[in-house]
Amino acid sequence: MPGKGTRERESLVELLSQLNRLEEVSGLDVAELKKVIKEGKWNSAILDEIKKYVEIETVSSVRLSKSKREE
User: Does the predicted model carry a pTM greater than 0.70?
Assistant: First the structure.
């Protein structure tokens, strides 16, 4: 999703407002909007318009932990 303070974010907020959907995502709560998109809660025409602002990113992480030793 576009970051706060970006032109893209302002444009997305305006689009959601025009579509009367802004209140459903709590003034553009990104987590709520992601949920709406993932679950397909809105009709496909609206989702297609919103997806123009979405960038899919794969994130990998590695975590260290203490090994569990057998006794």
Answer: no
